[in-house]
Amino acid sequence: MSFALLTLSVGCSEEALTPSDPQEFIEFPQGDNAYDAEFVAFYEDYGTYVLYDYGETDFRWNVTTMLPYYPTAPEMSAVSDVWNFFTSRCLTVWPDDFLRSYLPTKIFLASDIYDKKTSWVWDPNTQTSTQQEVVDKHYDAIYGFNHLSIGVVNSSFATKSDADKLKAVGQFSCALVGYATSRGLMDIPQEFKDLYTQGTQTGSNSDYSGQWGYSGRGHLEYNAAIDVYYDFGLYVKYLTTMSQEAYEAWAYDPTFDAGSSWDSSIGEWGDYVYHYYIKQKTAVVLDFFQKEYGINLHEMGNRAAGVNP
Prior knowledge:
Blueprint: H1 34-46, E1 49-51, H2 56-60, E2 61-62, E3 65-66, E4 70-72, H3 79-91, H4 96-102, E5 106-109, E6 112-123, E7 128-138, E8 141-143, E9 147-150, H5 162-182, H6 190-200, H7 228-239, H8 244-251, E10 261-263, E11 268-270, H9 277-293, H10 297-304
Parallel strand pairs: 1-5, 5-9
Antiparallel strand pairs: 2-3, 4-6, 6-7, 8-9, 10-11
């Protein structure tokens, strides 16, 4: 299987593609395996192509820049099992109408998705350090300009623990919502945007460490380049994969949701209720999904965690 740019069009029209996508044509289906027939049925139902043969440019293209993520080709022997997992565990938790509204044009399958960072690397042979690009983080799922990507299509996925597989479920939901909000298909509540802005202006530690760490700013995970879309998606990730009891015990712990502000009138750090960003953001996200879609995210989390809602 080549990892190359797609150039042919079979069984679909040019009008079905995103107009600004650099690919004018798409080869689909990409083979004659049993899972290819499943991908055709999926496209007919949701209007989304599931692709395993594509180029890095297709994957990383983002209108005027390149996404900071890199894929490796999927292990074809794992495609069927991993796709069955994602359809049964990631997609079915969302209503069909929700998926038809927010799934992108494409879902890319990859064995691994990672990003890079520049780091000093010691060479024991020359006894010197040089700056090199090294792999930083691996991702179970990410979103791009017009796609979602699954980064666990490999033989080792079958041996992952239930907890790690549940993380993959949550990361897919995070990517789905991140895609929908970043493309303007889903509106993030203004109250969440305001809390995000307030939180990112809190403190001064560039590495998000200590009391003024990422959680004190209202973020559920450390990410130095976090934006409001990914931040919003992270709340969906954890609310839909943790029981309500476990989520509240973790997220509302005062040592985690710990934001405070300098009170110049008394010369001390003061804790004010409006600085508990995580608890406030959580309430906004829960209310938004309940009112807009009739979806109770805590119920989804309870089911995923094996707890009766």
